[in-house]
Amino acid sequence: FADIRKLHGGLHILINNAGVAGPSAPVEEIDEDAWDRCIRINLSGTFYMTRRAVPLLKAQDAASIINIASTAALFGYPLRSPYTASKWGQIGLTKTWAMELGPFGIRVNAVCPTSVSGPRIEAVIQRDAEQRGLTPDQVRHVYQRHTSMRTFVSADEVADTVLFLASEKASKISGQSISVDGHTEGLSNWLD
Fold first, then answer.
1. Is 188 inside any structural domain?
2. Mind listing the pLDDT tens digit for each residue in 97-149?
3. Residue 191 pLDDT exceeds 50
4. Looking at 48, 77, 83, 143, which residue is catalytic?
5. Which residues constitute the domain of residue 49?
6. Do the beta carbons of residue 91 and residue 70 sit within 8 Å?
7. Cβ(26)–Cβ(79) under 8 Å?
8. Do residue 14 and residue 66 come from a single domain?
9. Count of H helices and E strands in the chain?
10. What's this model's pTM, rounded to 2 decimal places?
């Protein structure tokens, strides 16, 4: 953070985007190390990065923190306890920090995307198809049926939302969780 101050004169925007999917298993089968890793990266990473950045952000007239959460932070998500808990935790931090840091001119929001088009979701679809003896198209349909628009979002759509929240156009938006998801109706398991 000392280098940020030297190179850029300060910090106006922090985007907490590091994250892992964590294990996919029934609660009784989740390995403790896998749980700890997911919580450590997704939730603790957000906390520690923000804790270090806040002194630089407070030195500005206005600043913005944007936490990349997930639609899993808005619903339960069977078989994904660590991921879901970590993302709900990010929403809690978002709300708390908006209240705590607002008096210093720091806005805090979360962006909650659903599955994002690209190699990562395609790898997940392929893995699930092989595990379940289905075609990738069948698995894609299962994933997309939980959104009203029956589609994934693009990385650009998520990035545009982040850029908006970081901009002066969002100068009075704080404490919000903005879904970029084609309207998620709910998250469920394969038994539905």
1. no
2. 999 999 999 999 999 998 889 998 898 888 888 878 899 999 888 888 888 88
3. no
4. 83
5. 2-114+153-180
6. no
7. yes
8. yes
9. 7, 4
10. 0.89
> In this model, does residue 14 exceed pLDDT 90?
yes
Q: How far apart are CA 189 and CA 64, in angstroms?
A: 35
How far, in Å, CA of 5 to CA of 56, rounded? 8
**In which band, very low, low, confident or very high, does the pLDDT at 32 lie, cut at 50, 70 and 90?**
very high
Residues 106, 127: one domain?
no
Regarding whether 122 and 96 lie in a shared domain, the answer is: no
Residue 38 sits in the same domain as residue 126? no
Q: Is 83 a catalytic residue?
A: yes
Q: pLDDT tens digits for 161-184?
A: 999 999 999 999 999 999 998 887
105 located within any domain: yes
Number of domain units in the chain: 2
CA distance 32 to 122: 27
Q: Look at residue 189 in the predicted model and tell me its pLDDT.
A: 57
| 137 and 83 housed in the same domain | no
Domain match, 19 and 94 both: yes
Examine the domain organization and report whether 72 and 119 are in the same domain. Answer: no
